């Protein structure tokens, strides 16, 4: 869950988000080193006299500043491609949830159960209970088992939406007439909040997502009570 004036990412709750945070730090360090080097060169050229002007025409220098950027791009591209392939993998999901975007609420169907489906609307500010979050709380949370691979099938009934939960590293477009899929794996129980991340109309800001990750035995009790 994000907090006011937060500068970094939310705490990672899935292996994919941990990989994304690691890649972010990796790329940021490269950018920091490049920026420091450029700043040093600029400051040295402005404050010192060039005693070896012939160095600027040397073949060795041209070779270095041609090859070095290529090496840096490879150092960024290889980890990025690895994470992209990891995000597309579907590894024997234990549960499948179909998510349907509407203007302006979400519908969820537990396809492994009969008649287990519901709509999820944002709770109006006037109806919030103490401790609930404004613009983020819903009347029906998506209850899922923790530490299990879950497949999310995401589509839309009207316009473009985007189903996003930052702490899990998830952001998948909901497109009318197309079924997108992604995997979800939470490493610990808890409440995880997200929102629609595609401008979809006047009430775009009022489409929150709340995932309640619980142990498997509690999920089985919940699913039995909902049927």
From TrEMBL:
<feature type="domain" description="Cytochrome oxidase subunit II copper A binding">
    <location>
        <begin position="92"/>
        <end position="225"/>
    </location>
</feature>
<dbReference type="InterPro" id="IPR014222">
    <property type="entry name" value="Cyt_c_oxidase_su2"/>
</dbReference>
<dbReference type="GO" id="GO:0005507">
    <property type="term" value="F:copper ion binding"/>
</dbReference>
<keyword id="KW-0479">Metal-binding</keyword>
<dbReference type="InterPro" id="IPR001505">
    <property type="entry name" value="Copper_CuA"/>
</dbReference>
<feature type="transmembrane region" description="Helical">
    <location>
        <begin position="66"/>
        <end position="85"/>
    </location>
</feature>
<dbReference type="InterPro" id="IPR045187">
    <property type="entry name" value="CcO_II"/>
</dbReference>
<dbReference type="GO" id="GO:0004129">
    <property type="term" value="F:cytochrome-c oxidase activity"/>
</dbReference>
<keyword id="KW-0472">Membrane</keyword>
<keyword id="KW-0249">Electron transport</keyword>
<comment type="function">
    <text>Component of the cytochrome c oxidase, the last enzyme in the mitochondrial electron transport chain which drives oxidative phosphorylation. The respiratory chain contains 3 multisubunit complexes succinate dehydrogenase (complex II, CII), ubiquinol-cytochrome c oxidoreductase (cytochrome b-c1 complex, complex III, CIII) and cytochrome c oxidase (complex IV, CIV), that cooperate to transfer electrons derived from NADH and succinate to molecular oxygen, creating an electrochemical gradient over the inner membrane that drives transmembrane transport and the ATP synthase.</text>
</comment>
<dbReference type="InterPro" id="IPR011759">
    <property type="entry name" value="Cyt_c_oxidase_su2_TM_dom"/>
</dbReference>
<feature type="transmembrane region" description="Helical">
    <location>
        <begin position="27"/>
        <end position="46"/>
    </location>
</feature>
<dbReference type="GO" id="GO:0005743">
    <property type="term" value="C:mitochondrial inner membrane"/>
</dbReference>
<protein>
    <recommendedName>
        <fullName>Cytochrome c oxidase subunit 2</fullName>
    </recommendedName>
</protein>
<dbReference type="InterPro" id="IPR008972">
    <property type="entry name" value="Cupredoxin"/>
</dbReference>
<keyword id="KW-1133">Transmembrane helix</keyword>
<keyword id="KW-0812">Transmembrane</keyword>
<keyword id="KW-1278">Translocase</keyword>
<dbReference type="GO" id="GO:0016491">
    <property type="term" value="F:oxidoreductase activity"/>
</dbReference>
<keyword id="KW-0679">Respiratory chain</keyword>
<feature type="domain" description="Cytochrome oxidase subunit II transmembrane region profile">
    <location>
        <begin position="1"/>
        <end position="91"/>
    </location>
</feature>
<dbReference type="InterPro" id="IPR036257">
    <property type="entry name" value="Cyt_c_oxidase_su2_TM_sf"/>
</dbReference>
<dbReference type="Pfam" id="PF02790">
    <property type="entry name" value="COX2_TM"/>
</dbReference>
<keyword id="KW-0460">Magnesium</keyword>
<keyword id="KW-0813">Transport</keyword>
<keyword id="KW-0999">Mitochondrion inner membrane</keyword>
<dbReference type="InterPro" id="IPR002429">
    <property type="entry name" value="CcO_II-like_C"/>
</dbReference>
<dbReference type="Pfam" id="PF00116">
    <property type="entry name" value="COX2"/>
</dbReference>
<dbReference type="InterPro" id="IPR034210">
    <property type="entry name" value="CcO_II_C"/>
</dbReference>
<dbReference type="GO" id="GO:0042773">
    <property type="term" value="P:ATP synthesis coupled electron transport"/>
</dbReference>
<keyword id="KW-0186">Copper</keyword>
<comment type="similarity">
    <text>Belongs to the cytochrome c oxidase subunit 2 family.</text>
</comment>
<keyword id="KW-0496">Mitochondrion</keyword>
